[in-house]
Specification:
Two copies of one chain form a homodimer. Chain A is an alpha/beta fold. Chain A is 35% helix and 27% strand. In chain A, strands 7, 8, 9, 10, 11, 12, 13, 14, 15, 16 and 17 form an eleven-stranded mixed beta sheet that branches. In chain A, strands 3-2-1-4-5-6 form a six-stranded parallel beta sheet, with helices on both faces. The longest helix of chain A has 20 residues, at 305-324. At the A-B interface, helix 1, helix 2, helix 6, strand 12 and helix 12 of A face helix 1, helix 2, helix 6, strand 12 and helix 12 of B. Strand 12 of chain A pairs antiparallel with strand 12 of chain B.
Chain lengths: 434, 434
């Protein structure tokens, strides 16, 4: 045994930083037994030294100078919980150059600069862990890297953004509109003042890039992910979904096929009996399908001070165990292969299409004809009634599994038809049409 | 790097052994990338060398002499998939004494002799992993040891036996009787010819002993587990459960409180809206509640050739990674503390009690009186009608959270009343009464 105490520096004392500190303090005794040595919070970087804190950190451990952590020879592990690309990226690279191992919750950084960060860890012979970057406290990254290592992963599908799931749950349960529920979620603290990262699908895109990289052993970065947010989902779509036996969720989907891998985030209709349809509010759930294990699911709180802190401290414990026994980490980057990422036009899916058209004889067959000419097979059609004094009919179409490019071509042709007023919604359908 | 090839010996080539071999062969290329060295099946112990095999093993790798594995200096890792206590225990101890690391799926052995096995691993400086012993392919042991290490675990609750869950699902969906569904399950291959280990609750008891030991960092062995099987659950109970808004599942429950830990397996009524109520057929699901992470759930196929093989090969990969880098395992036994296990009479629970009594005035109040005198608070009562020409009334009682010993005392006193003909069923209720 080479070390009796492992010293940790924390960059940031916001929600997640405070949770991390609290857990290290409150569960310190049992953590010490698990690690075999003491884990001490040596320094915490804060912006304002004089601000009152929700968590008790000795005054001498607080600093507003990042060098006190990055260049402190006593510190073994740096926990980065600032978020965003800069200065987090620079700090992490400096810390690694100085021989420190890293624990980060930074999904944006890992999704955009994962290659650089992991290569720097390799080069500097330090460990980097990022369990907290996906699914909050839900164990998912380590289970995929280790517990499912025997499998070739075929598919990952999950709800990995709590804010949008909260909003969609409310919209579904209460029949309310997006804007209305968003305002409510902001008030309740479930959505940020600027909600773009969540409702625009960015956050889920970062996370699925990370999971896909691990699952397919091939680097997937943020630019490889096709993503849409939930801001265009309407109360009408949710109502139609219910009629059709579906629930709308913001799903992150990653699949591998001989033609390449596809990675996408978008509002998705799934059968209401699908286990993911029952995942409500801010909860997250991730299905992983392996060729040996079949489908396994991981479920829990995908965010929050203590759950995210739980994942960060688990990473700290893991690294601290290695340091205690003077072992060098050997499970940083697992992207051993280089797989082609499909373009969104090359994927296949079922689609729900809602459109307004003239309420006159022959319209239905004309539209169906355009779908047919473009190889878009139709599974079901709903025409409930008419709008605007019977001049406009709203029709909902659900297609079989078709090529995205064929669907897009059909939509393009439909838009140019004089009988079609507007295409109101296009939502992909997963889990089988019926 | 010290090794280019890791050699594995497998004890047993039944269902799980064959799955293990298949995965090591079929996914060998990607496993090699993950481990950093080749994993080779060096020897497989079989009973009959001439029997045809479902998996292709070179004839020279087969042996019917266990020494070819246990005393083979080339073999690094021994996979034990024979099951049962002996000779598995002796073989594992011998293999460890000869410096071999162990992967086992043997829940009975780990639940009954875990201490001995883990101490032997420690003494011989070898690794032992047993992910496959609980939940088949579902990652649960490593996630609990590592990913949830920051938490003090407060509760574990799950469906961890596929056979009984299949039977209870059929009984619930079809209204059939236990014996009828058991026969059907045996025909379908979901239940053994001798179903005792599953339907009697033994299998789940082994597994919860293992999970509790890890969760509470304190050795819980099979003898510490209170368990009941599902053989006394009747179609009537399931019908009443539905009326009351519950579903009956065989749950394994482990809780920690200041008075000690309680570990039990029994048929349990849970609210039909509880996520565990939706876990059907042979699927398993395990809730773990930590003080930081809150509740997380792990879900998947709890048995089967390939899922169980997936867990075993993950363990092999984990150990092989360490061996490749000449690192000694340091995460064998995690029972750092010694916690008191409560007796079943000292637990608290809600209860469903179904009894037959004389159909005459004053009976209800007399029975309620006995409950009351014993501090058993009543939440609901159902009397649907009468049996045997109106002479006998069947009454169902649901209690609030009460002490088991008080409930038992009340039942004892009720049995001695002349107006009570029989106590037909007593089933614990979890997840809140309503």
């Amino acid at each position: 045994m080479s070390k009796k105490q492992i010293k940790v520096g924390i960059l940031g004392l916001g929600t997640v930083g405070s949770g991390t500190a609290r857990i290290l303090q409150e569960n310190g005794d049992s953590i010490k037994l698990k690690v075999g040595s003491d884990i001490k919070i040596a320094k915490v970087l804060v912006r304002d030294l004089s601000r009152p804190r929700a968590v008790e950190i000795p005054l001498e451990a607080l600093t507003d100078k990042v060098e006190d952590i990055l260049e402190n020879p006593e510190i073994d592990i740096v926990v980065e919980v600032m978020g965003g690309i800069e200065p987090a990226r620079t700090y992490i690279l400096k810390a690694m150059a100085n021989g420190k191992s890293i624990v980060t919750a930074n999904k944006e950084l890992m999704a955009k600069h994962g290659k650089e960060i992991l290569e720097a860890a390799e080069k500097n012979h330090v460990a980097i862990q990022f369990e907290a970057s996906v699914g909050g406290g839900i164990p998912i990254i380590r289970p995929m890297k280790r517990c499912l290592a025997a499998n070739d992963i075929e598919e990952i599908m999950g709800i990995i953004n709590g804010t949008t799931n909260y909003i969609l749950t409310k919209m579904t349960d209460e029949g309310s509109d997006f804007q209305e529920v968003l305002a409510e979620a902001q008030k309740a603290g479930y959505a940020e003042a600027d909600p773009t990262a969540d409702v625009g699908g960015y956050d889920a895109a970062y996370k699925i890039a990370i999971l896909s990289s691990i699952g397919f052993s091939s680097r997937v970065s943020f630019d490889d992910v096709y993503f849409e947010g939930i801001d265009k989902v309407t109360a009408e779509d949710i109502e139609y979904a219910k009629d059709l036996g579906y629930t709308i969720k913001l799903l992150a989907i990653a699949k591998e096929s001989p033609e390449g891998i596809e990675i996408r985030v978008h509002p998705t209709m799934i059968p209401s009996k699908h286990p993911l349809a029952a995942v409500k509010d801010v909860f997250n759930a991730i299905f992983v399908k392996g060729d040996a294990v079949g489908e396994v699911m991981f479920y829990g709180r995908g965010a929050g001070q203590m759950p995210t802190g739980s994942a960060i401290v688990a990473d700290v414990i893991d690294i601290a165990r290695d340091l205690t026994h003077d072992i060098q980490s050997r499970l940083n980057c697992t992207c051993f292969t280089d797989k082609k990422v499909k373009k969104i036009v090359d994927i296949e899916s079922s689609y729900y299409v809602r459109l307004d058209c003239s309420n006159q004889p022959g319209v239905l067959s004309q539209i169906a004809g355009v779908f047919g000419e473009n190889n878009v097979g139709l599974c079901s059609v709903i025409q409930k009634g008419s709008k605007v004094g019977k001049e406009v009919a709203e029709i909902v179409w659900v297609t079989y599994q078709v090529k995205e490019k064929d669907l897009q071509q059909a939509l393009k042709e439909l838009t140019s038809l004089s009988i079609v007023q507007q295409i109101s919604s296009v939502i992909r359908v997963e889990g089988g049409v019926h």
